[in-house]
Amino acid sequence: MHMLSRFVRHFTFATFAVLAAALPIRAQRLLVPMDDAQSNHLKAYGLTYYAIKSGASAEWLLNYRGGSFLLADTPELRRRAGLDGITIESVDDGKLADIRAEIASSNMESVPLEKAPKIAVYTPPDALPWDDAVTLALNYAGIPYTALYDDEVEHGDLSKYDWLHLHHEDFTGQLNKFYLSYRDAPWFIDLLQKNTAAAKRLGFANIPALKKDVAEKIREFVERGGFLFAMCGATETLELAIAGHDVDIAQSFIDGTPMDPDADKKMDWSRTFAFQNAHLEQSPFVSSMSDIDGHQVNVPGRQQPLGTFTLFNFAAKFDPVASMLVQDHRSVINDFYGVTTSFNKSVLKPGVTVLATEEGAPWVKYIHGDYGKGTWTYYGGHDPEDPRHAIGNPPTDLSLFKNSPGYRLILNNVLFPAAKKKPLKT
Amino acid sequence: MCAWVRVAATVLVLLLHSPLSTLHALQAQAPADTMAFYKALDLEAAGKYRDAAPLFRTAVHTTAAVNALLGLERVYAELGWPDSLVTLLDTLITQNPHEDTYRTVQLRTYQTLGRDADVRRAFDVWVHDAPTSATPYREYARLLLQRNQTAAADSVLARAKQSLGTTSDLSLELAQTRAAQGQWVPSAQAWRVALRSANYLEQAAAYALAPAPSSVRDSIRQTFLAPPIDVGGRRALADLESTWGSPADGWNALEDLPPDSAAADAWSEFAKQAEAEERWSIAREALESALRWRKTPDLSVRAATAALNAGDPVAAIRLAPPMQGDSATVAHDYLPLHIRALAALARPADAERLMTAYDRFLNPAEHNSLTRTIAWGWVRTGDMTRARAALAATGADGDSSDAAGWLALYDGNLKTARALLRGGTESTPELAVALGLIARLKADTARAIGHAFLALARGDSAGAASQFVAAGERTPQVRSLLFLIAARIQSATGHQPQAVALWTRIVQADSATPEAPQAELDWARALRASGNAAEAGKHLEHMILTYPESALLPQARRELELVHGAIPPNP
């Protein structure tokens, strides 16, 4: 099934490329290079998103100069590029023919970007955009999004969006076990009160029950064709909440009853996206959820050091989706911690596409897969430019990291649905 | 991670304090049976750990037993033999079960060996043997904190409270634990208690509380500011305010300390930091407070200098040491301060009289330097003739000085100003503006411009602004620059409508000049500061798109990102 969908996708892209090459090219284009010539990689994604949204033609030139974008040459796009300090190059017909010839003869591909995805970010209503790497990146790049949380998910609002992002939410409902260390901290008390009130308001017995239901609705969103992108602790806990839908996997400090001692055996991994056969952390005193995370940053005896991770190079013509997700001007990137930093290989389901891994390590960093009619992508860690982010640390100022290769991976995910819609429509 | 480093830093401070003092005391005694111990210390210092180990081992049976054991612990750690301590410690503890150091080393040794169950068992035995002592709890909690086992450390402290009825002897460990748990206010309360008996921990307290989020900082402030006043706690808060980026608020923590020698030390230390950062008003306040308790010439000079640099020459004269005592000392140490203050007050005649009285104690370089200062005083009175005369009196050196260059500029003599200021030793923003201006003027004289600079030097901002505008109207080749200077003066003195009128003229009438993008950026910044983000954004967009080659583009783009909320606001 997976291979078949890849074939269909490849066939569609290849067909489009042939048709595009056969059409007479009249207008001049703007090339947005994404190699080291680009002065602001992150804003370049915002420019491309704007181009798609405003109906201008846009193509993603996979593996061509770091995954460049080819846009219609309009005064407004030039104006925006000038304002944001984005490097653009004029491409005339002759140059365009050269580019297409190079793409045709190399491990490159041209992917049309057609429809700007409607983006939703699952985040508490009072969260600042600086709390989350994705909202940081979207804000900086100027890509609009809607923030939604439990009320909106429970009321069915997910169906209004194409793309959903999750960050450090704990879908097991245990509030990341912060109770262990922060139970008297005012911010934690506030968090607990708000989540408890939301659970009651929405008709659930406690926070874990609410979060498991939200996780289920997210699973259904993907199954129906949505694009899911998750980072940090949301990756691991979403899977645990889905697999543990009918099991008590929460500790007594949050729901008044201890975790089911046989919870491990009762987990239903057939419904999850990425992981299987993971073992739950049974101790309420250990700040870890399971053995999915390879780095276990909050467990002193288990914490693993940070290294670097390497992006895989995919065949752009045969696997354009994976190629889109790894477009970058660097292939080796410094790792960064999060509540969940990485994913142990031993718990990956067969068929999961590994996009980035740490050489020699038993874990991977960046994974992707299909589920129902949709797709999901997980990226471990909290903030690519704040490798040891701690609660209370100042927010990352992306104007100081406008060429961040780690943040580029996030924005690849934002644009990828614009291309993915094409095969679904045809 | 951060919590571990903080705890480690504090523990290091504690460790560094104890062995040195003990060692000095021991060397003073030096009984015969401790010779092995001293020999072992020498060998350890020479890096001969293998040779030092047996001598330390011998010395654990002498009167230097405790220090010998600590030495043995150190050298075994270097040699990777910590397991060799286990049996010895059992023996020593059996012989002397009330020696806390043996127990502490035992905990550390088990921890180093990764024998967590034995650490726990040793702790339990220690608590059993010393049921009323806080030391076992303290040592075990510290070890756990070092390993970032905050919850476990918390449990140990809770057990201490249950067993001992209080944690007053464990306030440092409690403070560290609460900080590691993010319980910032309880941590601050515990730090306050800890600092009462160990005020040298103020930096450790500030370091531990530094990550507290802004939402709880007021509560932390209230904790340290609550009566009764403790100097240690207040010093910690002052350090903390600096760490949080508001050193001015640090003074709030110290200003109401009751005057005594500890407070005077705190004020003087705080002022030292402010002086280093050139925050002269705060430095002056702190030093004035210190002077109320401890009136020394050194503090007086520092206070007067701070006042002078803060722009208050009247206070500088009041605070400066009186011109009394050894004449040479007065001439070298106090006279320059008085001369500078009198010149700033436009009292050059008084300055000249004072200098004449002490001139024989001055070397030629000091004499010339002070003469130039007096010349500056004459400039401030507007008497350029006396200013030139004063400068001429210093000879060739005075004629070729920066001051002479400025005098030439005030006089409108651009040719001389150009030559002297270019080769000068100053590097101030004012000089950069003046050099930029005269470089663009072909003429050798420009009296109107000179008068405008002179008005500025005299502190007449309003007059200077209008004179720069008037000069600009008459010299089109530098009109935009003169208008820009005037606009900045108007903006800095709160006259925004006048500043806007000038920026508008630059952007509209002199759009091809280098000042146009600068004027539009200044304009946008003023608009953003006044809350008009929409208009600020329009100007920034216009500036960026109109001047794509401007060197100011990165600054303009950052401003635009702040206007759009694309990046976090500046702290």
Keywords for this structure?
heterodimer; A: 426 residues; alpha+beta; Alpha-Beta Plaits; Rossmann fold; 2 domains; five-stranded antiparallel beta sheet; 14 helices; 15 strands; 36% helix; globular; B: 571 residues; mainly alpha; 34 helices
Account of the 3D structure:
The complex is a heterodimer of chains A (426) and B (571). By secondary structure, chain A is α+β, with helices and mostly antiparallel strands. Chain A is 36% helix and 15% strand. In chain A, strands 6, 7, 8, 9, 10, 11, 12, 13, 14 and 15 form a ten-stranded mixed β-sheet that branches. A five-stranded antiparallel β-sheet of chain A has the order 4-1-3-2-5, with helices on both faces. In chain A, α2 runs antiparallel to α3. The longest helix of chain A has 21 residues, at 2-22. Chain A is globular. Chain B has 571 residues and is mainly α. Among the domains of chain B are: 400-502, no CATH class; 514-571, no CATH class. Chain B is built from 34 helices and no strands. Chain B starts with a helix and ends in a 7-residue tail after the last helix. Mean pLDDT of chain B is 86; it is low at 1-29.
Summarize the SSE layout with pairings.
The complex is a heterodimer of chains A (426) and B (571).
Chain A: H1 2-22, E1 29-32, H2 41-53, E2 58-62, E3 68-72, H3 75-84, E4 89-91, H4 93-105, E5 109-112, E6 119-122, H5 133-141, E7 146-148, H6 150-154, E8 163-166, H7 179-182, H8 186-201, H9 207-223, E9 227-231, H10 232-243, H11 252-255, H12 263-266, E10 308-311, H13 320-325, E11 332-334, E12 343-344, E13 353-357, E14 363-371, E15 374-379, H14 405-425
Parallel strand pairs in A: 6-7, 6-8, 8-9, 9-15
Antiparallel strand pairs in A: 1-3, 1-4, 2-3, 2-5, 10-11, 10-13, 12-14, 13-14, 14-15
Helix pairs in contact in A: 2-3, 2-5, 2-14, 8-9, 9-10
Chain B: H1 2-29, H2 35-45, H3 49-59, H4 65-79, H5 85-95, H6 100-112, H7 116-129, H8 135-146, H9 150-164, H10 171-180, H11 184-197, H12 202-209, H13 214-225, H14 231-243, H15 247-254, H16 261-276, H17 280-293, H18 297-309, H19 313-319, H20 327-344, H21 348-358, H22 364-381, H23 384-392, H24 396-399, H25 402-410, H26 414-422, H27 429-440, H28 447-457, H29 461-474, H30 479-492, H31 496-509, H32 515-529, H33 533-546, H34 553-564
Helix pairs in contact in B: 2-3, 2-4, 3-4, 4-6, 5-6, 6-7, 6-8, 8-9, 8-10, 9-10, 10-11, 11-13, 12-14, 14-15, 15-16, 16-17, 17-18, 18-19, 18-20, 19-20, 20-21, 20-22, 21-22, 22-23, 25-26, 26-27, 28-29, 29-30, 30-31, 30-32, 31-32, 32-33, 32-34, 33-34
